[in-house]
């Protein structure tokens, strides 16, 4: 990682907290958006030309991690744009995104647009010269009208605007089955001590407290990275988190190992996790919450995951507030307040054609996000999307958690160099769950950090 890249990471981490304001400050003004999907272009004239029919019949390919229900909602949100412009958007969703995007770029068959869950992965393509500079057709000044500075900074690498965020997420939440929870007489924990007592009560009552797994094809392991990041924000000063991401302290710093020890107390307690370590590494992440809704009563009670996971609950258990609800993952050390871990997906491009520019410009508009917001399982970082645009209370409440956060940080693994963040950090979590010690695993990850 270049020194310039390191300085960038430090700067963007320091300002990430302002994203909370973007979730609510402009909600009144944002109600002024219209039904015209081209009413808010963001620089360049390609979007206007698209709505004039100039690119009718053109094809634009998009690659993302969104599959199944998320694929349907994303493509559905683009239907009005396709109908109005005649542009055919060919979306491919894959859980092997990290592998596939690298293979396609290296083979000269890159998609027109890729939607990256990790800024660090997009940064690697900027550094290699493969990702496009978007500034000739998307103005950062225009983006600033609807995006907090943090989101623009996260899409800017070595001074080059290369990504536009389309989706945000709040990760610091814990899901639970509403009806069974009430029948059991359980209460929402406000502190970590409350959570510990609740876990022990659930075990005494005969069930595992947690539904946890990490299997996600080539992306296996990322669930564990989210957990340790969330815990670190609750046990150490935020400066430690920032220094860890920028590699100003070693990956196996004592504060990080302390967070790992707290995580081990939950993850590696066979009474606490349904299926134990074997279940953690072998269960697909989309199936993880299903045992909360077992016919004879929950086999496990709590699942820490972002709001999109509700789409993977059993089809008859997806009614938010009735079937399932969530609570904020409690703080651990009072001095560190109520931190929130967040993430997001940003669109970058590899092929420069006018119709590709038009699609990217459209993805930066509030109208592009409103369809998915209405369908549920989605939060937009675009402040032009009003809270009223969300049909789902689950999504609306996530935005409120962001607003109330005393500290907000972007997912660390997504910001680290791809060799680590989506490489050895992910795979190291599998080794850890399989039985290797935290000291050995985290030291091994430290040894893989790129020297430049």
Description:
Helices cover 43% and strands 13% of the residues. It is of the alpha/beta class. The protein has two domains: 3-170 and 341-405, D-Maltodextrin-Binding Protein, domain 2 (3-Layer(aba) Sandwich); 173-339 and 414-447, Periplasmic binding protein-like II (D-Maltodextrin-Binding Protein, domain 2, 3-Layer(aba) Sandwich). The strands form three sheets. Strands 1, 2, 3, 6, 11 and 12 form a six-stranded mixed sheet that branches. Strands 8-9-7-10 form a four-stranded mixed sheet. A hairpin with a 2-residue loop joins strand 4 (156-157) and strand 5 (160-161). It is globular and about 65 Å long. The relative contact order is 0.20.
CATH topology of the largest domain: D-Maltodextrin-Binding Protein, domain 2
Helix content: 40-55%
* Terminal Cα span: 5 Å
Structural class: alpha/beta
By DSSP, the count of extended strands is 12
Name of the CATH architecture of the largest domain? 3-Layer(aba) Sandwich
Beta-strand content estimate: 5-15%
- Please give the CATH class of the largest domain: Alpha Beta
Uncertain regions spanning at least 5 consecutive residues: 1-43
Task: Name the shape in a single word.
Answer: globular
Total domains, how many?
Answer: 2
Q: Averaging pLDDT over every residue, what do you get? A: 89
CATH evolutionary superfamily of the largest domain: Periplasmic binding protein-like II
Largest sheet: 6 strands, mixed
Query: How many DSSP H or I helices?
Result: 21
């Amino acid at each position: 990682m270049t020194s310039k890249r390191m300085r960038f990471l430090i700067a963007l981490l320091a300002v990430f907290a302002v994203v909370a304001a973007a979730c609510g400050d402009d909600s009144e003004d944002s109600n002024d958006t219209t039904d015209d999907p081209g009413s808010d272009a963001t620089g360049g004239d390609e979007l206007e030309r698209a709505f004039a029919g100039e690119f009718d019949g053109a094809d634009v390919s998009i690659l993302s991690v969104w599959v199944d229900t998320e694929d349907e909602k994303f493509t559905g949100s683009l239907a009005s744009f396709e109908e109005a412009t005649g542009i055919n958007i060919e979306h491919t969703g894959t859980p092997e995104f990290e592998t596939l995007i690298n293979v396609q770029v290296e083979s000269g068959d890159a998609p027109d647009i890729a939607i990256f869950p990790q800024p660090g992965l997009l940064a690697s393509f900027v550094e290699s010269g493969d990702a496009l500079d978007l500034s000739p057709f998307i103005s950062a000044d225009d983006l600033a009208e609807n995006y907090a500075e943090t989101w623009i900074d996260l899409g800017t690498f070595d001074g080059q605007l290369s990504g536009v965020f389309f989706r945000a997420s709040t990760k610091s939440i814990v899901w639970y089955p509403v009806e069974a929870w009430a029948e059991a007489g359980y209460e929402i924990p406000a502190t970590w001590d409350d959570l510990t007592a609740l876990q022990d009560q659930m075990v005494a009552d005969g069930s595992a407290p947690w539904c946890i797994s990490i299997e996600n094809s080539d992306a296996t392991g990322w669930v564990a990275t989210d957990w340790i990041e969330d815990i670190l924000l609750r046990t150490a000063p935020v400066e430690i988190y920032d220094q860890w991401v920028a590699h100003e302290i070693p990956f196996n710093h004592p504060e990080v190992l302390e967070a790992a020890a707290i995580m081990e107390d939950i993850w590696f307690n066979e009474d606490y996790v349904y299926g134990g370590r074997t279940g953690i590494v072998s269960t697909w992440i989309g199936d993880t919450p299903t045992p909360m809704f077992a016919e004879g009563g929950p086999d496990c009670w709590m699942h820490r995951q972002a709001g999109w996971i509700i789409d993977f609950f059993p089809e008859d258990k997806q009614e938010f507030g009735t079937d399932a609800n969530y609570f904020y993952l409690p703080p651990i050390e009072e001095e560190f307040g109520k931190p929130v871990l967040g993430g997001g997906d940003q669109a970058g491009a590899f092929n420069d054609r006018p119709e590709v520019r038009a699609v990217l410009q459209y993805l930066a508009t509030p109208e592009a996000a409103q369809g998915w917001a209405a369908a549920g399982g989605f939060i937009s970082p675009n402040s032009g999307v009003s809270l009223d645009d969300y049909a789902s209370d689950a999504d609306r409440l996530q935005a409120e958690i962001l607003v109330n956060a005393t500290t907000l940080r972007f997912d660390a693994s997504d910001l680290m160099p791809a060799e680590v963040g989506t490489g050895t950090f992910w795979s190291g979590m599998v080794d850890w769950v399989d039985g290797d010690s935290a000291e050995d695993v985290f030291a091994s990850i430290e040894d893989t950090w790129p020297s430049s």
